[in-house]
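Bumping my old thread because nobody answered last time. Still need a sequence for this structure:
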């Protein structure tokens, strides 16, 4: 099998060209931790030919020669444009993931974009919007570890033309106590380099299943919109939510609702109409997985 990146040589810039969902990525970097991150978590992705069109030319590098050695930093750039301030060098793998979130969200306005995890079982897509601390990524990882298809951990890309969700299966972002929780939940979970002291705390990324990556061109029909909330020691509670309240809450979780104007309003309304809507409170991953599996069946 061809490696996504050839042998890593310290100080040598390497290139990777691969496909994520409908997006073609070209990455260049000489940072070993970034290259190891790609080799470890993106090994199942389609490798592109040199002649393939590239959507995002991405680079991760030190901002200056001095920053390679003293108080080392890393910058993320897209076609030479630097959208973020430099971060500490140790955060380079996480910065690649955060930068890709920005690339996709900033260049997908032919979709309504909701900040949400999306998983699927039996052709029924579950959408879990969530603010930081809601437990959406932990819940997403647990379902994926139990055989659910991963469409995205970060965003639901809903077509304004037909209402279907386009997959962007990438590593699942886990933070703080979610990392050991998922490691204990499944010994099959592959988690890359764990980075401490970021703006989001301690961060690690879980490798998506090969089956989800291979189905990255298969769109999904939304079935359930569920607003999760992790609460320590709570009972598992699934509470119906009116479509009016669900639309208001989903609109607040959209990245580009205002940008799309009337198209965004109509698309979100049609999306809500297709879904059963709930609030969900949980502390037990096993109970959550069991409940949603029963709903999908």
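Sorry it took so long. Here it is:
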């Amino acid at each position: 099998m061809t490696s996504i990146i050839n042998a890593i040589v310290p100080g040598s810039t390497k290139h990777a060209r691969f496909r994520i969902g409908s997006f073609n990525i070209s990455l260049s970097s000489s940072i070993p931790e970034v290259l190891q991150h790609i080799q470890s978590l993106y090994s199942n992705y389609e490798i592109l030919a040199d002649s393939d069109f590239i959507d995002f030319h991405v680079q991760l590098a030190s901002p200056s020669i001095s920053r390679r050695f003293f108080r080392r930093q890393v910058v993320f750039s897209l076609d030479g444009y630097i959208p973020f301030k430099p971060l500490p060098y140790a955060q380079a793998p996480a910065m690649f993931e955060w930068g890709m979130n920005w690339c996709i969200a900033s260049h997908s306005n032919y979709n309504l974009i909701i900040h949400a995890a999306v998983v699927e079982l039996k052709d029924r897509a579950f959408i879990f919007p969530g603010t930081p601390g809601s437990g959406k990524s932990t819940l997403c990882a647990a379902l994926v570890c139990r055989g659910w298809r991963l469409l995205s951990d970060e965003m639901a890309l809903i077509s304004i033309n037909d209402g279907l969700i386009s997959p962007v299966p990438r590593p699942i972002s886990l933070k703080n106590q979610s990392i050991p929780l998922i490691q204990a939940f499944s010994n099959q979970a592959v988690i890359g380099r764990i980075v401490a002291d970021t703006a989001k705390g301690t961060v690690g990324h879980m490798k998506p299943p090969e089956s989800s990556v291979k189905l990255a061109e298969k769109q999904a029909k939304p079935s359930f919109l569920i607003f999760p909330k992790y609460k320590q020691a709570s009972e598992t509670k699934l509470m119906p939510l009116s479509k009016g309240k669900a639309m208001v809450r989903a609109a607040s979780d959209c990245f580009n609702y205002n940008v799309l104007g009337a198209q965004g309003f109509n698309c979100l309304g049609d999306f809500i109409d297709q879904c059963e809507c709930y609030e969900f409170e949980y502390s037990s991953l096993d109970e959550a997985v069991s409940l949603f599996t029963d709903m999908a069946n």
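The longest strand covers residues 111-121. Let me know if any region looks off to you.
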